[in-house]
Design a protein that fits this description.
This protein is α/β, with parallel strands linked by helices and 107 residues long. It has helices spanning 33-38, 44-55, 60-67, 83-88; strands at 10-12, 27-28, 69-75, 91-97, 100-105.
């Protein structure tokens, strides 16, 4: 799904311990929360921003910009489909592999 992306481009995704995204070499907006907190990094603000983005909340586009997000990875198992919110913000679905979807900012 991430093949061909610049590894320095930041990807937003809900990640869990041992997610395959960790082995991809791709920069993530936020890694596993337990690891972030154990390294003394600010967790609450980043987690709130990621939740806002991934839920299509009112400030999602601002949070994506502040985190430098260029791509969103979405899994159908995450629940709600937010295609309308992201599409209205100028993002489009670039790739689909099974239940996984890659969204990018329209150029």
């Amino acid at each position: 799904l991430l093949e061909g992306l610049n590894p320095d481009d930041t990807v937003a995704a809900y990640v869990a311990y041992r997610t395959p995204l960790y082995g991809s070499g791709q920069s993530l907006a936020m890694g596993y929360a337990g690891a972030v907190q154990s390294h003394g990094l600010p967790l609450r603000t980043r987690q709130n921003q990621l939740n806002e983005l991934m839920s299509g909340g009112p400030e999602w586009a601002k949070d994506a910009q502040e985190m430098g997000v260029k791509w969103i990875v979405w899994n159908d198992n995450n629940g709600l489909r937010l295609t309308e919110a992201w599409a209205a913000g100028g993002w489009k679905e670039e790739k689909i592999e099974g239940a996984w979807h890659l969204w990018g900012k329209s150029r």
